[in-house]
């Protein structure tokens, strides 16, 4: 599963099949961290006597975990709130709660603007949910949007809601200190803090014991993971490379992925750790945002085009078969055709295997909104985004074509949507492969020879190693 802001994917919780407890329906938008947060929320609520349902019509409480990254992410949520209003007309006892980044950004404005909303709970206040729900049941609208410097929900075992039972997200840190000028995340998620590594390793071990075969370590900037602890009298620190190793050592049969890496913090040490452990997947998501050093400076990204290309070179030399994906923003403030062409040329130079591509969307109160003019006309933004998408389409196709004829180890993740006789899974490089079942089951590792590809998927057949 790869959920990312622009998709505004609806992620529904599974049914815990308990009829006597009040039922909570959770709908999730935004990044993988939000998906994992919904699992934390489900865990807290189940621990307090609630059950979760995937049927909105059965719900006593409707929660929507929201994203503020671009304007259209918020528009989508407002549309959903209107729909929840209709449900509430039929069943007035239903409570509606807004969680996540919009709750944090809009605070009690949400209660004023949208009558349907009973609860507004920010990303660091989920432990308070049971109390806030009880207050709302008594007719008091509940708001808690306090951000914390410590909260990492380290002791809470998320209730896995994805149902595939094979791959899981594990949050290793929260918040972000980077202050990219366009970005709302530091305001909605607060300061960066890292989670105790022992609790991460324990969660990963528990997942492995429960049959999971892949974990994705999550953070807005995983490469700045930093933990300081005490072992007896000796102080010790754990950086991201150390943590990656600790997680890889849980079991060689457990795949390890991570997201997201900031180009300014991706060290060679991390690349060597990736190269050393077979079970750390050979894929790096390294958002570039723009190919123009001038724009990168305005974005406050703290690297140049050359620095970025230097990181790409390091990846290629230390992990030759590593795939690289990225994020790109089209039409940031003051972007000229020359800047745009620099983005296109960088894309060609790197040959990204995959990319998430967005039009710049000004977010209130960010540095860019306060100090820079959103001056690229909408139609120019659209045209530039289209050119970026078209180029990436070709690059993604080339990346897949290059795999035809090769063999890859694939983790079987589920049944193909198109055929009951086929499975889908991913290569270490994070490319999706569809192949005939050949007597295997979900959670198995198999060797697949790639026989063909479509623009979106590789196709193959299971072979002996
Ligand atoms: N922490 C990650 C990504 C967080 S948000 C990182 O720094 O790479 C995911 C992506 O959304 C960003 O990489 C960026 O490409 C995009 N994004 C963030 N703010 C945006 C905005 N205001 N307009 C358009 N795209 C934005
Ligand atoms: Fe936003 Fe930048 Fe932090 Fe990513 S690193 S979450 S883009 S501020
Ligand atoms: Fe969106 Fe918040 Fe994630 S703004 S991208 S849900 S951190």
Helix vs. strand class: alpha/beta
CATH topology of the largest domain, by name, is Rossmann fold
- Radius of gyration from the CA trace? 22 Å
What coarse outline follows from CA principal-axis ratios?
Answer: globular
Q: What is the level-2 CATH architecture name of the largest domain?
A: 3-Layer(aba) Sandwich
**What's the CATH class label of the largest domain?**
Alpha Beta
Number of domains: 4
Residue windows where pLDDT falls under 50 for at least 5 positions:
1-15
Number of helices: 14
What is the element layout, followed by pairings?
Elements: E1 11-12, E2 23-28, H1 32-46, E3 51-52, E4 61-66, H2 71-90, E5 95-100, H3 101-106, H4 109-113, E6 119-121, H5 129-137, E7 142-144, E8 167-171, E9 173-174, H6 185-189, E10 193-194, H7 197-209, E11 214-218, E12 226-231, E13 234-239, H8 240-248, E14 255-259, H9 268-276, E15 283-285, H10 293-298, H11 305-318, E16 323-330, H12 337-350, E17 354-359, H13 367-371, H14 378-401, E18 407-415, E19 422-427, E20 432-436, E21 445-453, E22 458-463
Parallel strand pairs: 2-3, 2-4, 4-5, 5-6, 6-7, 8-11, 11-14, 15-16, 16-17, 20-22
Antiparallel strand pairs: 1-2, 9-10, 12-13, 18-19, 18-21, 19-20, 21-22
Helix pairs in contact: 8-9, 12-14
The structure holds S-adenosyl-L-homocysteine (SAH), iron/sulfur cluster and FE3-S4 cluster.
